[in-house]
C-alpha cells in the first residue's frame, strides 16, 4: 500500500458545472422503476487524510451535496440535500485511489417530493471508490445506493448513482514542532525549562496562513495556544502534539518527543590527594572515605551521585625482593582501602594508587586518584604521620 504524502484536513469543492477547466462535471442518475433522470450536483466536502498507519486512511468528515431540482416521471424533486450522518472511513489502495468498504458510514438524504418533505438514511451497500490526486489537486468519488423494492413490482425499485468530481482547493497546513524528537540537557535535580517551538509551521496554499496553534500533551492535556510554549519537564521522555489551523480551519498535527538527558559527568573533589607512610614496618593501614579522605561529588541532575573506590594498585609486587616477604599488601571495598607500610629494599620506594569514582544515575563518571607513598628512606615531613588506622593482618579492611 502507498502512503499519501501529506496528512491533515482538506477542503474539496464539488464541480457542479463546467468551469472551463476541461474536467468532468458532477452528476447524479435517479432511477425509479423503468424511468430515469439525470441531475446536476454541487456542494463541498471535508476529508481528513491520516498517514500514521501502515496504509494511509481517509475520513470523509463532512459531505454537503446539493442535487439540482429534477423530475422523474410524475415525481418532482426539489430542495434536495445529502449530508454526512456517520463519517465514512476508508483506506488508500494506491497513491491516489481509495476505497470505503460497504456498510461503512451513513448519508442522510432529504428532499421535497411533490411538495412533501421526506428523508432517509442510506448506508452504502457497495464500496465507495474514489481518487484523491494531490499532484493534480483533483478528486473523484462514486456513490451508489439502491432499494430492491418489491421483486414482483419493478416500478417500486429505485437507485441513485452519484459521480462527484472537483478540486482540492485547500490543503492542510504543515505542522512543524521541531521534531519528531528533541534531546535537551537537564538543568536541575527537579525540572528542566524547555521551549516548545512550532513557529516553523506553515501553510502551502498561496495567500493562506496559520491562524491558530494548539499544544497538547500526548494524553490530550492542554499546554498552550502560542507558537512557542515554555514548559518545565522532568528527567526522561515527555510527549506532546502540536495542532495548527489555517484560514479555512483545515488542521494538521505532528507529535514531538522531548527527551531530557544527562550527559555531563559529576564533579568530584578529593582531599588530600597524597599520603606518606612511615616507617616501613609491614603494618597494614586502613583509610576510610569521609574520615581519612574527603571525596565529595556534585551533579546538576543527580542529587546524590555515588562515590566509591574502584581500584587500588601498587608499582611493586605484592611479595617482592627485599620487602619483608609479607603478602596481602592491598585490600579495598567501596569506601575503605587498606595498604601495607612496606617497600622493596632494592627499589626506590613504593607508591600505591587509589582510584575513586563518582557516578550519576545516567552512568556518567568522574575519577580522581590518591597516591600513597612508602619512601625507600626517611624523608623530611613523612616521619610521624598518623594518617589512617593501623590494623592487624587478620582484621577486615571494611
Question: What's the short story on this structure?
Answer:
The protein has strands spanning 8-14, 27-32, 35-50, 57-67, 70-72, 75-86, 89-92, 97-100, 106-113, 116-123, 128-133, 138-147, 158-170, 181-185, 192-197, 210-217, 222-224, 228-233, 236-246, 251-261, 267-271, 274-276, 284-288, 294-298, 306-314, 330-332, 336-340, 349-359, 365-375, 389-391.
Mean pLDDT: 87
- What is the CA-based Rg, rounded? 40 Å
- What oligomeric state do these chains adopt? single chain
Number of helices: 0
Relative helix content: under 10%
The amount of beta strand, in percent, is over 45%
Overall 3D form: rod-shaped
Count of individual beta strands: 30
Number of domains: 3
Helices and strands, in N-to-C order? EEEEEEEEEEEEEEEEEEEEEEEEEEEEEE
Low-confidence stretches: none
Report the biggest beta sheet as strand number plus sense, adding barrel if it closes.
Answer: 13 strands, antiparallel
Query: What class would the helix/strand composition place it in?
Result: mainly beta
What is the rounded distance between the termini? 66 Å
Amino acid at each position: 500500500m502507498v502512503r499519501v504524502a501529506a496528512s491533515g484536513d482538506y477542503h474539496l469543492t464539488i464541480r457542479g458545472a463546467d468551469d472551463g477547466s476541461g474536467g468532468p462535471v458532477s452528476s447524479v442518475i435517479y432511477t425509479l422503476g423503468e424511468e430515469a433522470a439525470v441531475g446536476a450536483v454541487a456542494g463541498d466536502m471535508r476529508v481528513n487524510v491520516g498517514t500514521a498507519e501502515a496504509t494511509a486512511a481517509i475520513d470523509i468528515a463532512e459531505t454537503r451535496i446539493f442535487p439540482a431540482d429534477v423530475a422523474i416521471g410524475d415525481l418532482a424533486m426539489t430542495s434536495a440535500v445529502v449530508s454526512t450522518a456517520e463519517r465514512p472511513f476508508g483506506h488508500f489502495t494506491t497513491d491516489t485511489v481509495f476505497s470505503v468498504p460497504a456498510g461503512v458510514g451513513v448519508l442522510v438524504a432529504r428532499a421535497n417530493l411533490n411538495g412533501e418533505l421526506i428523508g432517509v438514511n442510506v448506508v452504502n451497500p457497495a464500496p465507495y471508490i474514489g481518487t484523491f490526486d494531490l499532484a493534480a489537486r483533483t478528486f473523484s468519488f462514486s456513490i451508489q445506493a439502491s432499494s430492491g423494492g418489491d421483486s414482483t413490482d419493478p416500478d417500486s425499485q429505485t437507485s441513485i448513482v452519484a459521480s462527484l468530481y472537483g478540486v482540492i482547493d485547500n490543503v492542510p497546513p504543515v505542522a512543524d514542532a521541531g521534531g519528531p524528537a528533541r534531546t535537551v540537557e537537564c538543568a536541575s535535580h527537579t525540572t528542566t525549562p524547555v521551549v516548545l517551538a512550532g513557529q516553523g509551521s506553515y501553510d502551502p496554499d498561496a495567500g493562506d496562513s496559520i491562524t491558530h496553534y494548539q499544544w497538547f500533551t500526548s494524553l490530550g492535556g492542554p499546554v498552550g495556544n502560542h507558537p512557542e510554549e515554555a514548559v518545565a519537564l522532568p528527567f526522561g521522555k515527555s510527549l506532546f502534539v502540536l495542532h495548527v489551523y489555517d484560514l479555512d480551519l483545515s488542521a494538521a498535527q505532528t507529535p514531538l518527543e522531548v527527551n531530557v538527558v544527562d550527559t555531563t559527568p559529576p564533579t568530584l573533589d578529593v582531599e588530600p590527594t597524597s599520603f606518606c607512610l612511615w616507617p616501613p614496618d609491614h603494618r597494614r593501614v586502613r583509610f576510610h572515605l569521609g574520615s581519612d579522605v574527603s571525596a565529595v561529588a556534585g551533579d546538576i541532575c543527580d542529587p546524590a551521585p555515588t562515590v566509591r573506590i574502584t581500584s587500588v594498585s601498587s608499582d611493586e609486587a605484592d611479595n617482592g625482593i627485599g620487602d619483608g616477604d609479607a603478602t596481602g599488601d592491598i585490600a579495598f571495598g567501596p569506601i575503605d582501602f587498606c595498604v601495607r607500610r612496606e617497600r622493596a629494599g632494592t627499589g626506590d620506594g613504593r607508591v600505591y594508587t587509589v582510584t575513586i569514582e563518582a557516578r550519576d544515575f545516567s552512568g556518567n563518571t568522574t575519577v580522581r586518584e590518591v597516591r600513597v607513598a612508602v619512601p625507600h628512606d626517611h624523608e623530611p615531613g613523612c616521619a610521624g604521620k598518623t594518617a589512617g588506622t593501623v590494623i592487624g593482618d587478620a582484621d577486615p579492611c571494611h
